[in-house]
Structures are given as C-alpha cells and as structure tokens.
C-alpha cells in the first residue's frame, strides 16, 4: 500500500511547489482544440490564396471587397478563375459561384476552398482525375470562389469560441437574407444589413451565376432549395438540379448523403438562407448547399470535433471526396444548360 501513498505525496508536493492543480497541469483535452498542423488561420489562408493568385495571373484574379454598417466592417476576398485571364467575364461561359466559411466554426470548408484553387492552378492534383479532360471542362467556365466569407467570426473561433458560427457581431449570416425573412431565427433589426451579406449579394447579382454552392459542415448532404419549406421548387431547373444531386450522391457520396430540400431533410425549417435567396431572388437556376462533414456529436460543446476532421487521414479523405464532387459538378452542371437560353427559368 506504500506505493500509491508515496505517489500521492509526490503529486501533492509537486502541486504545492508549482502552484498548479494536477488537473490544470495536464494538456487541455476538452473541448478539442483547433489542430493547427492541419488548419490554416483565417488570415493565413487568405494570404496563401493571395500568393497563389500572384503566381498564376493567367488563371486567377483576386479582389477584396469591403463593406460596413453601424461601425461594424467586414472584408471578403473573392477569387476568380478563368482560363483566358482577361476574358474571365466572358458572358458565353458558364458562371459558377461557390461560398465557403459562412459559418465560422466550420473551418474545413475554407480548407476545401484552398484545395480546389490549388487544383485549378495545377499546384496540386486530385488522385484519379484526368487532367486533360478537366482542362477541357474548365475552358468553358468562370468560377468565383469566396474562400472565407466570415473572417470576423473566424477570428472569434480562433480566440477560443469554438462553437461560434455567427459573424463578428453575432448575427447568423445564413439567416440574414431577404427571403422568407422575419421568422424567429432572424434578428429583425439586422435584416440583410450585415456587411458580409451585402458583399455576397453584390457579387451574386453582378456575376449572375448559373450555379451557386454554399458549402457547410455538420452533416453530409447535397441540398437544394428550399430551406424555408419542406418542398423543392416546381419546374425543369429544379428537376435537373435533383437529377444532378442524385448522380453526385451515387458516385461521390456512395449514396450516403442526405439529398433533397434542406427544409425537408435537415429536421427544421431555416428562414433567410443564402441558397433560397440565390434561387428565388437572384434567380440562379442551380442552387445548392453542400454539407461536407459530420463529426462526433457525443459531446455537445466539442465543436471543433463536431464540425471538422481532427486527424490527417480524415482531413485528406474529406478534401479529396469533396474536390471530386465539385469537379464533377463543374463537368455535369453546365450540360444542363442550353447556352442560348441560359439563366431563364
Ligand atoms: Zn453551417
């Protein structure tokens, strides 16, 4: 019995000498901290994107859009990919807009943005992809990527608020759009006033994309409108969108993604979402929300682990799977459009 007693005495002495309790002397295991070996900081990721653009001026351009209201300011970086540089606004091409990092705790989404831009510049390659076929797909596209819509919110997460999903002044940017607005989740005084939403709305209306994707994490899904109803829209574009997500689910999600309207599939109705606004107001014919990762939900406050892969193998698997899904969307989506009547619904 002397062993445990001596050990206890030793620990007590250690505590009294160091002034630390044994609990606090241990590394912090809960909540799971951000794995900085895998994940960039928000500003680090934007810097990396900017240097990529600098190395590939023939394919990429970048702009940082600024907006502010009531003393609250936000910057949103927008990268544009187009193979012929100056013709990147060529109206004959199919236009695709993809938003990442709208919810600040979903760090993995911005890592996917960086990875897809790395693939577009051929600084990285996706296993199993035929580069020649990808290049001929990309010739006909202009792609705008918003790698981190909610940089201010991301800074709160990096400062330790791992469960925060809202922006720098605590507004949920995916309940902030002028569509079916005014329900309980929406802060009425800030209706579409958030600078981040204003910037995204401006980008969308001036670019007028054929395809919009809002990338999130927390579940694994390929959603289409509506989020605020338990139904999908009527008409041919909606049927084509559904056919496309069924194909993506089969090939790239092994049939395991939830598909259909967000409102019917997610278990609650969401009001004022970006994807519903893009479909109904900006009139983007193919509007999606992709949910790319479902983490461990056993401990409610363990948000980094709930929304993001924590080990390298899962991290790489998720990025590869969803890069392949996005590249398939780039290939299959434009086939649904008659180039002579694009954007008509
Ligand atoms: Zn989200």
TrEMBL record:
Active-site residues, record numbering mapped to chain: 291 (proton donor/acceptor)
Family: Belongs to the peptidase M14 family.
Record Gene3D superfamilies: Zn peptidases
Gene source species: Hibiscus sabdariffa
Pfam families, per the entry: Peptidase_M14
CDD domains registered for this protein in UniProt: M14-CPA-like
Protein name, as recorded: Peptidase M14 domain-containing protein
Keywords: Signal
Cofactor: Zn(2+)
SUPFAM superfamilies, sorted: Zn-dependent exopeptidases
Cross-referenced SMART domains: Zn_pept
Top-level taxon of origin: Eukaryota
InterPro entries associated with the record: At5g42320_M14_CPD (IPR034269), Peptidase_M14 (IPR000834)
Peptidase M14 domain segment(s): 38-317
UniProt signal peptide: 1-25
